[in-house]
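Example 9 (inverse folding). The structure is encoded as follows.
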C-alpha cells in the first residue's frame, strides 16, 4: 500500500496544498479498491441486491417477482367457509399489491365469530394443500411459512380502520402509502384490527377466481368428499337399475360405464338465514331473496332435461336446521338425501364445522346440476367455480347448453316454473356484489 501511495504521489502535482493533496490521494485509492473488489461475488451480490430492492418497491404489481424476504401477516380469519376463502384471497391480493409474500394465515374451524375464545384456530395447511397452492399460483401470489422469517427486526404493526368512516378509498390509499413509505423496509408488515379482510374489496373477480383455483383440499379431506360423492352415485345407480336394468351397462367387476348424474341443492332454510334474508329484503326492497321449502322443491322439480330418477343432495347446515321435513314432498322421480339419510353422517361427525362445509362445497361444486340462492356467499362461490370451469372449456354461456355444469338460482323464477339459469360475471371489477346477488348473469 505504501508503494502504491508513493507512485501516486509522483503522478500528482505536489505543489498543491497538503490538504487538497491528501483528499486527491484518498479518492484515487477508493477508485482503485473498487476496481479490485468488483469481480468478487459478495460485492457484486450486494450491488444487485440493492438494485433488486429498488426495482420491486417501485413496481409492486409485477406478476412474477416476489420478495421472499418481505412478508405480510394478517389476523386469524373467521366466519363461514366461503367468507374465509374470500378473506384469504383478499389477504393474498393485498400481499401481491405490496409485492410481499403472505405468511400462512390461521383459519377458524368453528362457526362462532363473536366469542373469540371459541374460534378454534386451524392452520391453512390442515385444510388446503400448501405446496399445491404455491405451485398453482406461482407468479401470481405466494404463501410463506413463519419458519422463513429471519426475525432480525420487529414487525411494523399496521392498524386498518373499520366502520363507516373507513371507506374503500381510504383503505386503498393506505395500501398505496405502504409501498411508498419507509415502512416498506420492514421484513414484516403485521395487519392488526378487527378482521380487516372481510370488508373492503379492491380486486377484480378474475383475480379471486385465480386464487380459488389454487385452493386444493389436502388428501384426507379430498378423500372424504370423494366418499360422499361415491355414495350419492351408488344410490343413483341402484335407482336406475331398479327402474330399468336395460339402461345400465355393467362390466364384470360391477362398475358403471355410463355416468350417473346428480343434483346438489344448497337449501338455505336454516333459522339464521331466514332471519338474515328477511332483513335483507326489507333493506334492499327486493322480494326475491328468501325462498320457502315448498318454493325450492317446486322449482327444482320443473328443471327440464333431467334424467329420471335422479338423486338430489340437500346441502344444509344441520345444526341450524329446525325443519326436519326437508325430505318430504318431493316428486317421486327426485330422490332427496341429506347427510344422515345418505349414510355419511359418520364422515362429517369426525370434523369441525369448517371441514364439514368444505366437504359439502366439493359435493355441490362437482354436481352435474347445482341449484342455490344467488344472495348466498356459499352458493355464489360454487357458481363462480363452475363458471370458471366452463370458461376453461371454452364455454362463455350456459344458457343454451345441456345440463352438464348447469347452475340455477332457485330464488329467481325462470321459464315454466323452473329456477333461473345462473353464471358469474367474470369481467366484474369487484367481488363485493357477489353476496348481494347482482354480480351474476342469468339467462
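The amino acid assigned to each position is listed next.
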Amino acid at each position: 500500500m505504501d508503494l502504491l501511495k508513493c507512485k501516486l504521489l509522483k503522478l500528482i502535482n505536489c505543489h498543491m496544498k497538503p490538504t487538497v493533496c491528501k483528499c486527491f490521494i484518498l479518492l484515487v485509492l477508493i477508485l482503485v479498491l473498487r476496481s479490485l473488489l468488483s469481480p468478487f461475488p459478495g460485492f457484486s451480490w450486494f450491488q444487485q441486491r440493492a438494485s433488486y430492492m429498488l426495482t420491486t418497491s417501485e413496481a409492486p404489481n409485477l406478476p412474477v417477482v416476489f420478495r421472499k424476504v418481505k412478508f405480510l401477516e394478517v389476523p386469524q380469519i373467521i366466519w363461514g367457509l366461503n367468507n374465509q376463502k374470500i378473506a384469504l384471497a383478499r389477504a393474498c391480493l393485498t400481499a401481491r399489491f405490496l409485492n410481499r409474500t403472505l405468511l400462512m394465515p390461521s383459519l377458524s374451524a368453528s362457526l362462532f365469530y363473536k366469542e373469540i375464545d371459541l374460534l378454534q384456530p386451524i392452520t391453512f395447511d390442515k385444510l388446503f394443500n400448501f405446496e399445491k397452492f404455491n405451485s398453482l399460483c406461482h407468479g401470481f401470489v405466494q404463501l410463506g411459512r413463519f419458519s422463513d422469517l429471519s426475525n432480525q427486526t420487529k414487525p411494523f404493526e399496521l392498524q386498518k380502520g373499520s366502520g363507516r368512516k373507513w371507506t374503500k378509498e381510504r383503505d386503498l390509499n393506505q395500501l398505496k402509502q405502504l409501498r411508498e413509505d419507509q415502512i416498506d423496509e420492514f421484513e414484516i408488515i403485521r395487519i392488526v384490527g378487527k378482521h380487516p379482510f372481510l370488508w373492503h374489496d379492491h380486486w377484480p373477480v378474475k383475480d379471486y377466481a385465480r386464487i380459488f383455483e389454487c385452493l386444493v383440499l389436502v388428501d384426507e379431506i379430498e378423500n372424504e368428499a370423494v366418499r360422499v360423492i361415491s355414495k350419492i352415485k351408488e344410490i343413483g345407480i341402484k335407482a336406475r337399475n331398479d327402474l330399468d336394468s336395460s339402461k345400465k351397462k355393467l362390466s364384470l367387476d360391477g362398475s358403471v360405464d355410463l355416468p350417473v348424474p346428480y343434483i346438489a341443492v344448497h337449501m338455505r332454510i336454516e333459522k339464521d338465514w331466514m332471519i338474515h334474508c328477511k332483513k335483507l329484503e326489507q333493506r334492499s326492497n327486493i322480494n326475491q331473496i328468501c325462498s320457502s321449502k315448498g318454493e325450492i322443491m317446486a322449482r327444482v322439480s320443473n328443471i327440464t332435461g333431467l334424467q329420471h330418477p335422479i338423486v338430489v343432495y340437500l346441502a344444509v347446515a344441520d345444526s341450524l336446521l329446525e325443519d326436519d321435513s326437508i325430505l318430504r314432498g318431493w316428486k317421486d322421480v327426485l330422490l332427496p338425501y341429506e347427510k344422515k339419510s345418505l349414510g355419511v353422517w359418520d364422515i362429517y361427525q369426525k370434523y369441525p364445522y369448517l371441514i364439514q362445509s368444505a366437504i359439502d362445497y366439493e359435493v355441490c361444486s362437482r354436481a352435474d346440476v347445482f341449484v342455490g340462492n344467488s344472495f348466498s356467499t356459499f352458493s355464489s362461490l360454487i357458481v363462480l367455480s363452475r363458471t370458471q370451469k366452463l370458461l376453461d372449456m371454452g364455454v362463455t354461456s350456459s344458457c343454451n347448453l345441456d345440463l352438464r355444469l348447469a347452475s340455477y338460482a332457485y330464488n329467481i323464477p325462470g321459464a315454466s316454473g323452473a329456477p333461473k339459469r345462473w353464471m358469474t360475471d367474470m369481467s366484474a371489477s369487484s367481488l363485493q356484489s357477489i353476496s348481494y346477488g347482482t354480480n351474476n348473469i342469468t339467462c
